[in-house]
Amino acid sequence: MRIERFAERALPEAGRADQVLIAQWTAFICLVDDELDVTPMGGRPEQVGSAMHRLVDVLEQDGHDEVRSPAETALADLWRRTAPRMTGGLRDRFIAHYRDFVEATHEEALARASGTRLSLSRYLRQRHRSITAHPMLDLVESTYPVSLPDEWHSRSAVRALRDAAVDTVGWVNDLVSAGPELTRGQDNLLTVLARERGCSYAEARSTVVAMLGESRRKFDQAAAELSQTPDGRRYAASLCSYLDAVLSWLSETARFEQTEDLMAYGPSLLEADRESGP
């Protein structure tokens, strides 16, 4: 499935411009994620921390900060076209969620470089932050024709709905990327489960499938609670569309079969242009 088709399925009621913008954000997020997973940079925590925190600087400066890498340039362009359509509260939430993703990504790089093996509970907490799904849900919200009030996000059912969606995306991502990550010697949910419980990868996969069933049950329960009001029903339906689009895309895309080609792409997306100064 092409990213454009993913965006159409994720935002079935949005206009074409909104769908294109979400497709571009998705491409950006996937490229950054793949570079950190596949290229040697992912094992250099100082470099990862510096490069990723510069992305947060771009957001906090509304895209006007000095940019040095191709990723910073792309993010600045995306943010200039996205921030004006957000309320102040939604912009703050997006930046906070993206900063949390950056910090989790840096923690992953530190663990990878030191050979630290995470416990299952710690891995699940970190994966919830590193999957970039919370920022994507904020971006989906930015396409709504009517802005939601800030207090909406303090509701327990909204938090439960989002958390279940984020966990589902992260765990399914781990299932479909398990082969390449095993080849590279990288941990994911299957390897952590197998190590902690002393089981085979096949048994770990069955456990993840059961976990996904429970996560979907929590999602549906929160959606049913929210659907008692028109706003809640629309919000739950939009997250359901996004989640179903992600799951379809992950099951159909050849992305995880092709990421090794990043090694031959040449200049890094995240490294600063040496000619632009230190």
Topology:
Elements: H1 3-10, H2 16-38, H3 45-60, H4 70-82, H5 88-114, H6 120-130, H7 133-141, H8 156-176, H9 178-184, H10 189-197, H11 201-226, H12 230-252, H13 255-258
Helix pairs in contact: 1-2, 1-12, 2-4, 3-4, 3-5, 5-6, 5-7, 6-8, 8-11, 8-12, 10-11, 11-12
Mean pLDDT, all residues = 87
Please tell me the CATH architecture by its name: Orthogonal Bundle
Q: Structural class given helices, strands, pairing? A: mainly alpha
CATH topological fold name:
Farnesyl Diphosphate Synthase
CATH homologous superfamily heading: Farnesyl Diphosphate Synthase
Distance between the termini: 40 Å
Cα-atom radius of gyration: 19 Å
Give me the number of helical elements.
13
Biggest sheet character: none
Number of domains: 1
In percent, how much strand structure appears in the residues?
Answer: under 5%
pLDDT < 50 stretches: 258-267, 274-278
Write the element-wise H/E pattern from the N-terminal end onward.
Answer: HHHHHHHHHHHHH
Number-wise, the strands total: 0
Classify the helix fraction into a percent range: over 70%
Structural overview:
With 278 residues, the chain is an all-alpha fold. The chain has a single domain (3-273), classed as Orthogonal Bundle (Farnesyl Diphosphate Synthase). The chain has 13 helices and no strands. The protein is globular. The model is unreliable at 258-267 and 274-278 (pLDDT under 50).
